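Researcher: Good morning. I'm working through a list of sequences from a screen, and I'd like to move beyond sequence-only analysis. For each chain I'm collecting a predicted structure so we can compare shapes side by side. This is the next one on the list. No need for commentary yet; just the structure.
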Amino acid sequence: MALLEIRGVGKTYGVLRALDGVDVTVSAESFHGLIGPNGSGKSTLLKAIAGAHYATEGTIVFDGVDVTTATPAERSRRGLSLKFQITAVLPELSVYDNVLLAQQAHRTLWDLLRSRSRAELHDEVMGWLERFRLADRADDLAEELSHGQQQWLEIAMALTQRPKLLLLDEPTGGMSPEERRATGRLLEPIREHCALVIVEHDLDFVRDICDRLTVLDNGKVLDDGTVEEIQNSRKVQEVYTTRV
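Model: Good morning. Structure tokens for this chain:
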């Protein structure tokens, strides 16, 4: 079943054609990777899906609804969540409070005014921290975490929204090899309730966790298929051999 259908999507900045007739289909509960050389349009496509900027042409259908011109907030309410490459945690707040604030974003103003949501959400907050190996850092300031741990914290914050689709832009950038391996293990359980679209330069990481890959080059889809099919694609091999 298709959760996300992108058809003929283009994005133009002045004379620059960043995306050109892109077609991508993402199935529910699947992990889908977007790969390609630098400047191929991966992050631009991710932002177009999230509504961080709007497609110049084409359509984006999410969970059966055309969201091509929907605002980021409208897409979020329908179940889209985006984590950018640069972490957006609140560095001067505790790790715990970062997740708590993400949880409280779904509470009504009345709940917040009664100041009851913190106690009610405690177990859920700690559950997310335990899931992402941060429970023992709950009282530490977010700025005291390593880069990899800050990435995990922001992924946990994004998942508190219970999205149907999580978009990740280079989540393993700057991580150690062990942190990259751990990130794959931490993400795998979300497959039960959330699909994933991930932009990533670490091809080993993408191969390990993704079911399907779309390869972009110069704003166009170069190839699309299973991990095995992409590994054996002569078109993809040529691009990565000559231009990466």
